[in-house]
Amino acid sequence: MRGNTHAAGATQYSTDPGPRVGGIGGLLNAATDFINSSAALVVLEGRLAVLSVIVMLAAGVIAAMLLVSVWLFLLAAIAFSLVRAGWPWEGVLVGMAIANIVAAGA
Question: How open is the CA angle 28-30-34, to the nearest 5 degrees?
Answer without folding.
Answer: 115
